Amino acid sequence: MRRITKDTTIGDALKIEPSIIPILMGAGMHCIGCPSSIGETIEEAAEVHGIDCDDLMEEITTYLASLS
Description:
single chain, mainly alpha, SP0561-like, 5 helices, 57% helix
């Protein structure tokens, strides 16, 4: 399985694991379906939304680890 990193685009991250949508929405990324956000990296989207990327990635990584 491919890893999701801060350099992964939102679109690719959702292809890898669509069930992270609630995490992104909960962090304040309510426009994850917008065409421009799909091409942004997680880090870029976090910056635009004023979200700490490291905290978000920790939450995503913890969640993904719980799936295995």
